[in-house]
Amino acid sequence: MPDDPTNGTAPTAGAGAPAPAVPDAQATDEVTMYLWRGDPGGGEFQEYVLPAQEGEVVLDVVHRVQATLAPDLACRWNCKAGKCGSCSVEINGHPRLMCMTRMDSLPPGEPVTVAPMRTFPILRDLVTDVSYNYEVAKRIPPFAPREKTDDERQAGGYRMAQIDVERSQEFRKCIECYLCQDVCHVIRDHEENKTAYAGPRFFARSAELEMHPLDTTDRRELLQRELGLNKCNITKCCTEVCPEHIKITDNAIIPLKERVVDAAYDPIAWLGRKIRRRTKRSASEAAALAPAAGPAAVQPDAPVRGIPMPERIPVPVGTMTGTPDPDADADADADADADADADGGAGAGAGGGDRDGAATPDA
Amino acid sequence: MSLLEDATATPVVLGGVRGGPDLPTLRQDRWWVQPVVTVTVLTAFVAYATWAAFVNKDYFAGPSLHRDLISPFYSPCLTESCVPGSHPGTILTWWTISPALLILIFPLGFRLTCYYYRKAYYRSFWWAPPACAVADAHGTYTGESRFPLFFQNVHRYFFFAGLVFNVILTIDAVMAFRQPGVGIGISVGTVVLCINAALLWMYSISCHACRHLCGGGAKQFSKAPVRYRIWKTLTPLNANHMVFAWMSLVFVALTDLYVRLVASGVIHDYGFHF
Amino acid sequence: MTEYETHEFDVVIIGAGGAGLRAAVEARAQGLRTALVCKSLLGKAHTVMAEGGVAASLGNVYPEDNWEVHFRDTMRGGKMLNNWRMAQLHAQEAPDRVRELEDWGALFDRTKDGLILQRDFGGHRYARLAHIGDRTGLELIRTLQQKAVADGIEVFMEVKAVRLVHDTTGAVAGLVGYHRPSGEFVVFRAKAVVLATGGVGKSWKYTSNSWESTGDGLAMALWAGADVIDMECVQFHPTGMVWPLSVRGLLVTEGVRGDGGVLRNSEGVRFMFNYIPPMFAAETADTEEEADRWYEDHSAGRRTAELLPRDEVARAINSEVKAGRGSPHGGVFLDIATRRSAEYIRRRLPSMYHQFKELAGVDITVDPMEVGPTCHYVMGGVRVDADTAATTVPGLFAAGEVAGGMHGANRLGGNSLSDLLVFGRRAGIGAAEYAAGRVGPITLDEGELEVAVCGATAPLGREDGESPYDIHHDLQETMQNLVGIIRTGSELEEAMAELDVLEERAGRVAVSGTRVYNPGWNLATDLPSMLTVSRCATLGAIHRKESRGGHTRDDFPAADPELGKVNFVQRIPGDADHTGGPGSCPSTRTISIAPEPLLVMPDELQALFEEDH
Questions:
Q1: In terms of domains, do C127 and C274 share one?
Q2: Min Cα–Cα distance to chain A from C123, Å
Q3: CA-to-CA distance for C368 and C351, rounded, in angstroms?
Q4: How far is A53 from chain B (nearest CA, A)?
């Protein structure tokens, strides 16, 4: 690697967290970057010092590191305008887009740490394997519009009022940077939840479809029971990190939770549905809707349908203590055990799963 | 198509090696300030409310002081032990401990299941997570999917109960304009009760469940113009739900404290009458 | 021969922007095994950067709009250099393609009647651009992406296509590329290959284009024997950000002007009224008052001069800056703050508001923006048959920005998104029909494959050599300074000499590290494409000795009617050395150029233009 003191300082190895800044006379003329260099085999922060330039964003500095000091530094980026959502990383511990983080918005004179997104497996340096998100995307039942009316066929397209499209439009602003997925502790700190948790991005997508004036599919049961809506404890970090300022928690997740309550926990609505179903449903509809009826509607949290755990049991990763879920096997049991399992969960779970106690914040 | 019938586990390979150092967080800002403040204020409130609820006296500044001020912790006072004049009539004769305990279940339930407070206490008390991008403190996590936390889903019923209490406390505030033995008047106490009632109303109507029930549940706003207008009005209030949550929480304790100080004779409730 | 990961499909589409996704959806709908290969993650393609809208004569705002008006606007905007058949198909089919998006979940802004709202844009006679605020491209790509996922199309993400590979009959039958995350090579065998790789902007220094726009598809087509046309016609968008330097070139949507924004020089003058060309004089307002009346009601005046086609506006800004009437950072002022309410600006232009606020610290509801021309779009591209999107090589199809002809010498804003949809679909059908007719096993030319792999990996083996970043930097400087918005013969010749040097340097490029997600190596493998398209643009610019649309020659400032009748066609002759350049690609010196007459427009379409005069 070139070592040109006028252009920057060659990397020096540093382990773990960067040392605190040592202010010096040149602090305003130079920027110090601690960039994560590594792959699945391990890694460390390396220090790069470059001359400061006016009006730069973090991505500019990373590019200058690539061009002058570390040509093989891996980072993912595309548009450099906050529109494609490729350059998601963690800057000083905050999940952010590199292209939308101005250097002058960070504490002056202090080094800047840039680490890859924590929640996804590392590929190299600042690049992670985000395929989890693309897998989840396939699980969301797609848009299924109603038929066009005669008037609409004549007019050439659906008629929708602006006020009807605005709610879903908010979620369609999403640039799929997956920072919300990254920051969500449900999967960030609990790898095993990835098999049955859609994450904020796909709750927003589901909300978008639920509120779409044309869509006809009811995704509520699926969301609650298979996509882990009830695992979200609305701590709002997704909203905090969203670069598009989508109010994911207030406008997507909570409305979805309320819609699930409409479907599953509202006794009057439930009774009404029961009666209607008994009287009106055709045989084919009954078959199609079968899992939604039955005891699950009374106790929706009993895992009626088992979620098979993958063959590979989660191993300790990063900040999570990778204990396999002791209930996983029980979950795989058939419907008959549903009630018993719910009770067992109540006893063992003692309020939301702190079986391993509170004394293990990290591995 | 993945509807419920054919839902399967998301096929991800678990246990991939993650990047970055194995530290709970890389944040160097003071992320712990928020949980500390939350814990401090909520603990202080719970401690005060518990004491105030069990102490079972000084909750009513009555005719002897030419006032009709009742603490929100004790209204409506429905048991035999209630101070004369403080209640609409004894209903529950079998309740022998503090009447406040009977009442506080409902506002407590409303706040406990509130979407904002859930965030606040999950973060600061439960550390799940303590702050964004800071590792949470638990080995496993099932969120609100199991007993007892799936009871959070009953929030809307506590919301309805909360509305009943809002009405009662509003009546209390109106009644506080009576100054027995003197006439009709305004005192610091009436103002306090009015503000308290107003803040509780703001907290209730800015609630997420309220926003959903009033209009958010509609599929097509254009087909429900009235619900749309209500939803549109509630949305900015809802954005400030946190503010109303804290203001009303602190103020309800201050209201109790004020009534308590007046009733016990520590301070005089300044006012005038017509 | 080395064993490579190999996949076989009926249709393989390279590029997952709007055109690629639309082609994939269509090929899939024809029942074929379809795969998408893209250089980035799915949904990140440059289409997301499109802001203003998609042009289609839906007639929802102005019922008098129809395909003939759209066709006429497109041809006139393209200075009549367009492939008339493409322009016709585009204008005729765009409305259906837009409405179809709604069936797949897109949510456009609405009119009061609940139909798709349309906005004004440069060069379009009527408000014609269906839009969603200023993030129309994102909506388009997300809709198509979700449709593709729902249809179960296989997507190979982060695969860089290196070379197209022929079969033994000389038809294109697949491609070789590598997985960027692992660096492992991968081979696709396909009955038909669709190129949808987008543009070439990354050869210029100030560009609105994203990292991916390195002209891979254009270069691969050329190397595979296809013709490319009109490469001198590069559009410089008049309004890119000029400050801070780090975001110089970033696009500022034409929608700002469509929604009432005006251009002013440092003296506060709306200078565009001084630059109205005779071709548009009849329909452009002479005075600010008339222009402002037009914004309120299009029948009350003629359209504002700020909404002339992009080439005119870009040249005007260039002239103002050169005359010393520019803004402090070398642009002009784009002012909407004094003309529209803050609430209106935030609602209509949310991402512009956001972009200036966060990147430049400018509140566009209070202060004017500083803007200047930025390299935006290449009108030229692979020569295709209008109806089937087939290139001149069997088995190879092209759609979107990589295809040439549709936009002539200058593209109107909003026509690119409709281009993607119309010709993406046609390429999907064309490729599917071709694939259905192609029987028998596919035998790839293994020699070609090996050459491509060797060429791509060569930079990793070199000990000392040029840094790919340095070569890229110098290439961008060369193209920006010598083949920019205004060109002259001597500078173009200079550029040719520079490109020769750069090509020679690219042959010595060396990168450190492994193939695993190595951006240095990735850039090294992009250099042959960038050098090839740069050479094409320069060569075309030298031969077109006139000014027309996006191509402006200082030494030939007027349009030449004779040159208006020809396309400059570039190709690599079959007998050229196909391994002589960097990365074992054909040397750019083997590219030949010749004028060929335009397709003749039928009389009934010709009549549309005679009515004007």
A1: no
A2: 25
A3: 16
A4: 24
CATH topology of domain A130-149+160-280: Fumarate Reductase Iron-sulfur Protein; Chain B, domain 2 (1.10.1060)
B145 to chain A, any CB pair closer than 8 A? The answer is yes
Domain residue limits, chain B: 30-195+242-273
Does C445 fall in a domain?
Answer: no
Cβ-based neighbours of C122, under 8 Å, separated by 6 or more = C254, C257, C258, C306, C307, C308, C309, C310, C313, C412, C413
Q: Sign of torsion, CA A110 A114 A119 A125? A: negative
Nearest to A93 among B26, B127, B154 (CB): B26
| Per-residue pLDDT tens digits for A241-296 | 999 999 999 999 999 999 999 888 777 766 766 666 554 444 344 344 433 333 33
- Looking at the fold, whether C170 and C196 belong to one and the same domain comes out as yes
User: Residue C397 domain-assigned?
Assistant: yes
Query: How many distinct structural domains can be found in chain C?
Result: 3
Among the CATH numbers 3.30.70.1560, 3.40.50.2000, 3.10.20.30, 3.90.1150.10, which is that of A9-127? 3.10.20.30
CATH code assigned at C319: 3.90.700.10
Concatenated DSSP letters of C571-613: E--TTS-TT-SGGGPPPGGG-EEEEEEPPPPPHHHHHHHHTT-
Parallel, antiparallel or unpaired: strands C566-571 and C228-229? antiparallel
Interval A52-72: pLDDT, tens: 998 899 999 999 999 999 999
Q: Which residues of A touch B27 (CB under 8 A)?
A: 92-94
pLDDT at A23 over 50: no
- Listed as ranges, residues in chain C with pLDDT below 70 are 1, 611-613
Rounded-to-integer distance, Cα A136 and Cα C114, Å: 33
The number of helix segments (H) and strand segments (E) in chain A equals 14, 8
Gap from A107 CA to chain B (nearest CA, Å): 10
Q: Do C511 and A72 touch (CB under 8 A)?
A: yes
Distance from the A218 Cα atom to the nearest Cα atom in chain B, whole angstroms: 9
Q: Does residue C451 lie within any of the structural domains?
A: no
User: Which residue of B19, B115, B133 is in closest CB contact with A116?
Assistant: B19
**Identity at C437, one-letter amino acid code:** G
Nearest-angstrom CA–CA distance, C205 and C483 = 11
Catalytic residues of C: 237, 257
C136-150 and A131-139 are packed helices; what angle lies between their axes, rounded to 10 degrees?
70
Closest chain C residue to A59 measured between Cα atoms? C246
Q: What gap in Å lies between CA C163 and CA C14, rounded to an integer?
A: 11
User: Average pLDDT for residues B163-187, to the nearest whole number?
Assistant: 93
Same domain, C28 and C175: yes
pTM (2 d.p.): 0.88
Q: Where exactly are the structural domains of chain A? A: 9-127, 130-149+160-280
pLDDT on residue A344: 34
Question: What residue of B is the nearest CA neighbor of A321?
Answer: B139
CA neighbor of C103 nearest in space, from A249, A356, A245, A212: A212
Quote the pLDDT of residue B88. 67
Same domain, C364 and C391: no
Chosen from A31, A36, A79 to mutate, greatest number of chain C CBs within 10 A: A79
* pLDDT band at A29; cut points 50, 70, 90: confident
ipTM for the assembly: 0.93
Q: Quick: pLDDT tens for A165-210.
A: 999 999 999 999 999 999 999 999 999 999 999 999 999 999 999 9
Asked whether residue C609 is assigned to any structural domain, the reply reads: no
A236 interfacial to chain B (CB closer than 8 Å): yes
For A79-87, what is the mean pLDDT? Answer: 93
Chains with 3 or more CB pairs under 8 A to chain C = A
Give the domain-ending residue among C375, C393, C423: C375
Q: Give the structural domain span for C79.
A: 5-235+379-437
Is a pLDDT exceeding 90 seen at residue A326? Answer: no
How many residues would you count in chain A? 363
Of the residues C354, C375, C396, the one at which a domain ends: C375
